[in-house]
């Protein structure tokens, strides 16, 4: 289920085997978090491209899949973005669980061992969405700064004024061209 207007905070769930996707979706729905179930990696990528707060991925969904498009998508994230990923795994650390090594490839990963408790899943999603909101706030601040810089440059040009830059390390003061 996808909730219009909440694409930027929804969870995209990829757990093609068993009932993990239905269970996770129902738990999130009951907790008030929108979610969408993807059935394969290409669908996951399409949904992530449309907007997401986080991805919940079962490790077996990636084990034999071509991860190149997913890694490329994650690699193309803007500087403010670091998509949270919850990786559903089975018991065992890096020595006993090959999916633990996937975390390094995927980036911002939290591991959740199955069977998971609903409260644990909701807590992870709540934390991921809160972090994602901070990322969106950082994006907005960066956009504001860029717009402010553009307005300042326009004002400087209109007033035929230059700008000064002080390099404190070298005690060097430079002035832009006045046009």
Automatic annotation (TrEMBL):
Transmembrane segments: none annotated. Signal peptide: none annotated. InterPro entries: CheY-like_superfamily (IPR011006), Sig_transdc_resp-reg_receiver (IPR001789). Gene3D superfamilies: 3.40.50.2300. It comes from the Bacteria. This is PAS protein. It comes from Pseudomonas syringae pv. pisi str. 1704B. GO terms for biological process: phosphorelay signal transduction system. SUPFAM superfamilies: CheY-like. Residues 10-129 form the Response regulatory domain.
